[in-house]
Specification:
Elements lengths: L17 E7 L5 E6 L6 E6 L1 H14 L6 H13 L6 H16 L1
Parallel strand pairs: 1-3
Antiparallel strand pairs: 1-2
């Protein structure tokens, strides 16, 4: 479907006619939702298995905490016991890399 862009910036709005959304599940079954407008044309959206899987992964990641509590506790313990070693050269290298990335 070609879109007329000559009216960009004007107060004219363009509407599509039939809209269909389709989701393809893992078992290759699909379901459709349609909405009919009074103008002509049709738009379709189809979610593939990959898109559905990405949505599931996104949902599972949103349920997880962004903080690794075990690592935080290990760091606290190492600091409290004096076992945490600071590598000044490594920190300086990371700072220089970060600074160089900002200049680009």
């Amino acid at each position: 479907m070609a879109n007329d862009i000559s009216g960009i910036g004007s107060s004219r709005t363009q509407q599509s006619g039939n809209r269909t959304a389709q989701r393809v599940d893992d078992d290759n079954k699909s379901s459709s939702i349609s909405s009919n407008n009074t103008t002509s044309g049709s738009d379709k959206v189809s979610l593939t298995k990959t898109a559905a899987r990405l949505k599931d992964i996104e949902r599972s990641l949103s349920d997880q905490s962004p903080v690794d509590s075990n690592r935080v506790n290990d760091m606290k313990s190492a600091l409290a016991n004096g076992n945490y070693n600071v590598d000044a050269d490594k920190i300086a290298d990371k700072m220089m890399t970060f600074e160089a990335a900002l200049d680009k």
